[in-house]
Amino acid sequence: EVQLVESGGGLVKPGGSLRLSCVVSGFTFRSYSMNWVRQAPGKGLEWVSFISSDSSDIYYSDSVKGRFTISRDNAKNSLYLQMNSLRAEDTAVYYCARVLGRSGLSVYWGQGTLVTVSS
Amino acid sequence: QSVLTQPPSVSAAPGQKVTISCSGSSSNVEINSVFWYQQLPGTAPKLLIYDNNKRPSGIPDRFSGSKSGTSATLGITGLQTGDEADYYCGTWDNSLSGVVFGGGTKLTVL
Predict the structure, then answer these.
(1) Strand B9-12 and strand B35-39: pairing?
(2) CB-based contact, A45 to chain B, within 8 Å
(3) What is the C-alpha separation between A99 and A89, in angstroms, rounded?
(4) How far does B34 lie from chain A, in Å, by closest CA?
(5) How many Å apart are CA B87 and CA B64, to the nearest integer?
(6) Residue-level pLDDT at A104
(7) If you measure CA to CA, which chain A residue comes closest to B41?
(8) Min CA distance, B41 vs chain A (Å)?
(9) B31, B39, B99: best mutation site toward chain A, by most A Cβ within 10 Å?
(10) Which of A105, A114, A118, B104 could, after both became Cys, cross-link B35 (CB 3.0–4.6 A)?
(11) Which residues of chain B have pLDDT under 70?
């Protein structure tokens, strides 16, 4: 069974940092690209970042470029999102998701972790 | 403002059919696969349709997808109260080098 479990969310002050983790099981992690997608309270889905299976291709949305860094450790079956210079508008549930082939789109999603940026 | 345009809401009676549109452009919908997701309240999105019209294992054939030019459509037949959810389309955008989503459509089964 494919499982993705995010952690690391919480309350942080504006300008602060947070590191999200996503541990996966049930599939060969090193063979798949991954996404981070977020959803602000009561809002729609917003793609955050993409990383290819070998980390050779990385993309960010304009809203997080220069502040967030995606990475992965294939030996630990883990995906990460380092978030710096956090803003109130970064408040959201953050999902990690496994990508289908070369589509860039997500098939399996974790349950999400809530990040709240507030003073 | 989302890159892909969906109607904010649709509604229909149980047993009826509904369609949800997703309008994009030449840099996204027209040239890349469209995915559709269902999100029930308080849960993570669930894949309904991939590669424009393919259903993952376990998704009933009441759900269908199609694409023509810069627009895609999700169809749901035999509506059930359990289908009440938010539905999102998504695809890759070659100009933005990233994933784009529609703003979501809330389905109400009256």
Answers:
(1) unpaired
(2) yes
(3) 25
(4) 9
(5) 13
(6) 85
(7) A42
(8) 10
(9) B99
(10) A105
(11) none
